[in-house]
Amino acid sequence: MAVPTYASPLERVWHYSYLAICAAIFFFLIAPIVIIIPLSFNAEPYFTFTPAMRSLDPDGFSMRWYQSLLTFGMQNPDAQGWAFWSDAWNNANWIKAAKNSIIIGFFSTLVATVLGTLAALGLSRPEMPFRRAIMAILISPMIVPLIITATGMFFFYSNPCELLTLFGFSPECGRLAGTYLGVILAHATLGIPFVIITVTATLVGFDQSLNRAAASLGANPRTTFFRVTMPLILPGVISGALFAFVTSFDEVVAVLFIAGPDQQTIPRQMWNGIREQISPAILAVATLLVIFSIALLTTVELLRRRSERIRGVTPR
Q1: 280 phi and psi, to 5 degrees?
Q2: Coil, strand or helix: which one is 312?
Q3: Which of 116, 255, 274, 283 is most enclosed, with most CB atoms within 10 A?
Q4: Where do runs of H (alpha helix) occur along the chain?
Q5: Is residue 102 within 8 Å of residue 246, measured between CB atoms?
């Protein structure tokens, strides 16, 4: 934005100082993320810029670490054609971790979106008793340190029947720790607060008279929800689902406590790689995750603008 012509010299100095401060803060936040992108193309197994990279020598750059994402853990990395891709799909550690992350993220997002949307709809009702207390409990996974939440989940999922017997139940249930169901439920618990917050923010500008108008025209509650309420709050629901998916996709603490050897996710695989053998392949994975996160944030921003246009906040 240009400086107004009537601005005093002191105001002009403050304007440009403000821009410089914002640029410095932006650089401070984005530099650690951007720096990993060129390092992921390092031809040498180092986490530093080699002399060849600093001189922009083509020999200093390589795609070897991206290739290692496909070959690490394969039984026959030298295979060709269909045999190579079949071996990579079934045996490569990073591929299996990606499949686990997508499967766990999808189902945990589905559970979090359904439960979080229902909770937001209930909490948006003015006649709902103890709204503040219930909201505080539901969003507590965002506030309580994750290590405490993960520890509690581990003890509960290790023997869920023991806790249920304290309330007079005697169910026949198995161990949830070390299973896909346990990890999905844990990630859904962590994703529900994001869905509640985004859907609740969307419902703030929702006109409840639309539901009353639909009821006056003979629509039952189910028809009213799917034909009136849901289309209007859909951008908020999708935004909450995206946040829940990103939370599941990036989460590592609960996975360390609850997941077994078969539920290795990408963050867990990165943790193992850093702890056991530091390899620039981790930088290649981080670069792909940055690109993936940028795509999701762009989608959330487009949905936010669409929601504002639908509600009339911004002009079409």
Answers
A1: -60, -5
A2: coil
A3: 116
A4: 9-34, 36-39, 51-54, 64-71, 82-91, 93-123, 131-138, 140-143, 146-158, 160-165, 180-204, 209-216, 221-224, 230-250, 253-258, 266-276, 281-311
A5: no
Q: Tell which residue, 293, 292, 311, has the closest CA to residue 235.
A: 311
Mean per-residue pLDDT for 126-142? 85
CA dihedral 60, 66, 68, 69 (to 10 degrees): 160
- What is the number of other CB atoms lying within 10 angstroms of the CB of residue 155? 13
Return the structure tokens found at 124.
């948006």
d(CA 97, CA 265): 4
Q: Residue 61's beta-bridge partner residues?
A: 42
Assigned token pair, 64: 């070897």
Q: Which residue has the tokens 């007079």?
A: 168
Looking at 101-115, 247-261, 274-288, which range is the least confident one? 274-288
Q: What is the DSSP letter of 226?
A: I
- Pick the closest to residue 147 from 207, 190, 191 (CA basis): 190
Q: With 0-12 CB in 10 A as exposed, 13-18 as middle and 19+ as buried, what is 26?
A: exposed
Q: What is the pLDDT of residues 233-243, one digit of tens each?
A: 888 888 889 88
**Distance separating the N- and C-terminal Cα atoms of the chain:** 23
Q: What is the pLDDT of residues 211-247, one digit of tens each?
A: 778 888 888 888 888 888 888 888 888 888 988 998 8
Q: What confidence category does residue 49 fall into, taking pLDDT thresholds of 50, 70 and 90? A: confident
Q: Of 201, 5, 239, which is closest to residue 113 (Cα–Cα)?
A: 239
| pTM (two decimals) | 0.80
Which two three-digit tokens encode residue 292?
Answer: 């993936």
In the prediction, which pLDDT does 232 show? 81
Instruction: Indicate whether 104 pLDDT > 90.
Output: yes
Residue 147 CB: number of other CB atoms within 10 A?
Answer: 12
**pLDDT confidence tier of residue 186, bands split at 50, 70 and 90:** very high
* 187, 254 Cβ separation under 8 angstroms: yes
